[in-house]
């Protein structure tokens, strides 16, 4: 079982109104296969009941299973059913911690909010919780048990990066550096306000980076809430963006070049937003 340093993104799932449609979209986009009802579940306002059961109970009492996604036989993410239409259709990211209750206490002490207290998953796979930072961005905590999280990452069809978008950078910077002990450095670019996170005990550098903080500026819609953006690695950014539209999704921001590779901002056929990145050697 791979070990993830505290504060390292170790799992991601998407909350969807229609998991079957999600399987068609992401299976077609990233060549994912799926295994259902493995006892996991994304945490919503009443997610503790769901993860104990391992399924989502809709109004009719029908069970809608959590679908774990695999690429080349290795775990990469999951699709989770929404039990309440008021819940957002969104990608969630979980950060590793050796002690979820202790991390949850630090969240509160640092000015954040614990939305769902730490709860064990079925079969002792992990202890997870849901929290929000002082700016309102939601994220998960993951204390590994029998499952540490990703088995594949940084390769095509798998998670490669995450960043939080906020309007309250001062409070949010202090929050994450307190909760996870991140070592940080700011990009040397006067046009971009971006802080890079490296795990506690490492040197702050691009080589050790696990995520970062961006700012919601006036260039973004006024109604955009604080949020985490999840990135997936792809071999060809333009081809993936085109394929997303063929599958019923949309391109929110067309492919563009950065020093880190070619990026596109996409939405699936149910509205969940994510990004794809083709690193320079694969772009």
UniProtKB/TrEMBL annotation:
CDD domains, alphabetized: SgaA_N_like
InterPro entries noted in UniProt: Anthracycline_SecMetBiosynth (IPR052164), Glyas_Bleomycin-R_OHBP_Dase (IPR029068), Glyas_Fos-R_dOase_dom (IPR004360), VOC_core (IPR037523)
Domain VOC: from-to ranges: 8-144, 158-279
- UniProt-recorded name of the protein: VOC family protein
